Amino acid sequence: MERPEHRELVYPSDFRLTDKEKSSICYLSFPDSHSGCLGDTQFSFRIRQCGGQRSPWPADDRHYDSGAPVSLQREAAHYLGYVYFRQVKDSSVKRGYFQKSLVLVSRLPFVRLFQALLSLIAPEYFDKLAPCLEAVCSEIDQWPAPVPGRTLNLPVVGVVLQVHIPSRADKPESTSLKQRGHENLLPAPLVLSSVHELDLFRCFQPVLAHVQTLWELMLLGEPLLVLAPSPTVSSEMVLALTRCLQPLKFCCDYRPYFTIHDSEFKEFATRTQAPPNVVLGVTNPFLIKTLQHWPHILRIGEPKMSGEAGPASAQGSWGDGPRHSEATLGGLGSEPAAQTPGRGCLAGGLPKQVKLKKPSRLKTLDTKPGLYTTYTAHLHRDKALLTRLLRGLRRGRPADTLTTLLRGHLLELTQSFVIPLEHYMAGLMPLQKSVAPWKTPPQIRPFHQDDFLRSLECTGPQLTCVLKGDWLGLYRRFFKSPHFDGWYRQRRREMAHKLEALHLEAICEADIETWMKDKSEVEVVDLVLKLREKLVRAQSHQLPVKEETLQRARLHIETAIGSLPKDLQAVLCPP
After folding, report:
1. Rounded to an integer, what distance in angstroms lies between the CA atom of residue 263 and that of residue 3?
2. Per the database record, which ranges form the UDENN domain (predicted)?
């Protein structure tokens, strides 16, 4: 595939991208020549931002992250790209095909919302071009900021999209808008049941027999190459894999769709070091040979589903690849959005399952579908789950019902694994009664892995999960993974903020005048400076303290300053 020669439009025009980022977006916005995509196709990709974070995040961004589930927080150093690609025969074009992509770039992982938005605006854009995008971007610019816990009405091209922004306070499986009342709007809103959740059953259909093995590989942060027949299947499988750990945040790298033209290809293909902790979705069979040294490779065949409506696709190739690409950039508030594939009732038995195979059989470009790995799962397979899914298929249950069943199983599995960690971590927090107002707060005790493993006998996952197996071995490997490091850092940071908040509350509830009676001016000034610093930290770090506590802290500062000589007051409170 040749380098894309032309980027027609970028909105908003002042959005800054490096040439390298623009090039990556252009290459990734078109299926490669091995994916015969005819008609309309939707998929997604993820690229690393060049040069790290360019500027401080706006206050709205920090407010969103503080209230959003950790798995749905904004990307700090990556861009997510959502693509609507059209390829149709057109004799008026020199190459014989009309080929164009509309790309939405965001830091939010709202795949369902952004696909729904693209499905509304892309077909119209392909007909009307620039004027259409100008109007759409103007509408999106008026959207409210994504506040966790709120239901938003988002008008665009004559349609109102109604969505619920997930919050940490939401209970699992409760973020659906189906149970929520909505206003009497004209036109009636198009209600999206979720901004981010995928149809897990449809995504995992060919690998249901190995879904627990894949869950373990994701939990341990193992490198996994996914070879799929199209960018749509590739990106959906990779996203489904990264989402199967919820509510645990996926802390490894992942690329829903990746090509050999990516600037990081050499980094992933090198054999001089172990493969990085990344889930890589590709469609080019050449990469199986190039990345043959990867420890786990999942090859998926052509999807075969009953009752599925989705983008048209056909076998074929279109020469040297794309020549034109557009990137539309923005966010919620200035980050756009899109539609979900059709859903229907699936009848019959489970589709043909990929088989577990040894990597040594991975020799040729025509390798058969399968999960190529030497990994042995620590937990026994849940045969009851497969029986229930198969029974549901035979009875013609809706795909949504089967997805709910599968998602519930994965959620229970992850929670059973994480709850003992949370229980042990909570025990490392100093008791509230040990937090004194005029002393440095006590330290959070360190996490000792051996102590935790010993605690599993009484508080282990066997209390909440029926699955048997080597849970201890799984925890030991988990301790070496990026996900343990990410989880531990997040929890320790939250505990440190809680400890700061408790210390501030203790100071505010104390009698400051009694404390100041035998204190020198230097000690009082030191208290003023420390209280001011705590107020700044409480607001900038959004510590879990009530407004009443902050008001008391301000009164303490005024009282302390008022007890000092006029010259010191002038220094601490300059006009």
Report:
1. 13
2. 1-489
Q: What is the DSSP secondary structure assignment for residue 345, as one 8-state letter?
A: B
- Whole-number Å distance between alpha carbons of 49 and 235: 19
Read off the pLDDT band of 179 (50, 70, 90): very low
Neighbours of 369 (CB within 10 A): 19
The CA–CA distances, whole Å, from 351 to 25, 200, 217, 381, 558 equal 34, 14, 23, 18, 71
Which regions of 313-413 does DSSP assign to beta strands (E)? 324-329, 355-357, 370-373
Question: What is residue 50's DSSP assignment?
Answer: T
In SS3 terms, 405-464 reads as HHHHHHHHHHHHHHHHHHHHHHCCCCCHHHCCCCCCCCCCCCCCHHHHHHHHHHHCHHHC
Which residues of the chain form CATH 3.40.50.11500?
201-303+356-496
Instruction: Enumerate the β-bridge partners of residue 86.
Output: 40, 100
Model pLDDT for residues 424-459, shown as the tens digit of each residue? 999 999 999 999 998 889 999 999 999 999 999 988
Is the separation of the CB atoms in 404 and 173 below 8 Å?
yes
Sign of CA dihedral 281, 284, 290, 296: positive
- In terms of average pLDDT, the best of 239-243, 346-350, 353-357 is 239-243
Q: Are 163 and 197 in contact (CB under 8 A)?
A: no
- Is residue 140 within 8 A of residue 15, CB to CB? The reply is no
User: Count of residues for the chain?
Assistant: 575
Three-state DSSP state, 15: coil
- φ and ψ at 550, to 5 degrees? -65, -40
Give the gyration radius of the chain's Cα atoms.
27
Q: Does CATH number 3.40.50.11500 belong to domain 201-303+356-496? A: yes
Q: Which long-range contacts (CB under 8 A, 24 or more apart) does 468-476 make?
A: 468/379, 468/380, 469/377, 469/378, 469/379, 469/380, 470/378, 470/379, 471/378, 471/379, 471/417, 473/378, 474/216, 474/219, 474/220, 474/378, 474/379, 474/417, 476/449
What b/e string do you get for 389-412 counting C-beta neighbours within 10 Å, with b at 16 or more?
Answer: beebbeeebebbebbebbbebbbb
User: Pairing mode, if any, of strands 151-156 and 159-164?
Assistant: antiparallel
Instruction: Average the pLDDT over 558-575 and give the result.
Output: 87
Which two three-digit tokens encode residue 470? 């080597």
Q: Which residue has the higher pLDDT, 332 or 469?
A: 469
CA atoms within 13 A on the CB side of 22: 16
Kindly state the DSSP code that residue 193 receives in the 8-state scheme: S
* Widest CA span in the chain: 92
Contact between residue 163 and residue 126 where contact means Cβ atoms under 8 Å apart: no
Prior bond to 109 cis, omega within 30? Answer: no
CB-CB contact of 44 with 340 (8 Å): no
Helices 399-426 & 383-394, crossing angle to 10 degrees?
Answer: 160
What distance lies between CA 112 and its chain's CA centroid?
12
